[in-house]
Structures are given as C-alpha cells and as structure tokens.
Prior knowledge:
Elements: H1 2-25, E1 29-30, E2 33-34, H2 37-59, H3 69-79, H4 81-100, H5 106-127
Antiparallel strand pairs: 1-2
Helix pairs in contact: 1-2, 1-5, 2-4, 2-5, 3-4, 4-5
Amino acid sequence: MKENTSDSIEEARRYLANAKQILSEKARKEDGYFQDQKYVKMAGHTAYTGILLVLDEIFGKKTRGRKDVDWYKQHLSQADKKMLNSFMTAYQVLHLDMAYDGAKSAALARLGLEEAEKLIHWVERKTGSA
C-alpha cells in the first residue's frame, strides 16, 4: 500500500507542477496579475484535482454517490483541524476563485498553491511516505 500512496503523492505533485507551469507559461503575468483567464481557470482546476487525489489516498472511497466538498470537510474535521483550514482555503482559492471565477491575482494563486502543498505534505507525513 505504501507504494500506491507514494504514487498518489507523486501524481498530486505532478498536478501541482502542471498548474504552476500553466500559470507561468500560458497565463502571462503582468504587474502581479495574470492576463489570460482561460489558463487561470485551467490551472486552478488542475491544482484542486491534485488535492482531491491525495486526500482520497487517506480517506478512501465514498460508499454512495459522488464526493463533494462537504464529504472532504467532514473527514478533515475529524482528522486535523489545521488541515481542514488549509483545505477550505485551497477550495476557495483554487476551485471557486480560480477555476470558476478566473481570478487573475498572482498573489491569490500563490496562496492557493501553498495550501495545496501543505495538504500534500500532510498526507505524506500521515502515511509515512515522506
């Protein structure tokens, strides 16, 4: 199982790296703001997907229906309140602000990506993959 966990963590890191690459190569940052909303949305979605991938490694599969943000919130609230805060910030920034709204602030994107890194690192420590 540790090998699979390690694979999931590496995959989540790859998603984050892809999101950063999209922002740096495609979104065209000028004066602290990205100029192409399409790529901001793409990067936000990519990074958020990486977070869900790594959290699924800890929390497993939902028994019925699709997972939603409340499912992750419930599990994180039982596991680690600090990580719940990181997840909620990442959800707000990466999923809502960037992926849906296309928020162009580079500082906002940086915050979301930092929270995503914290979550991945937490899963690494929790699973002993670090």
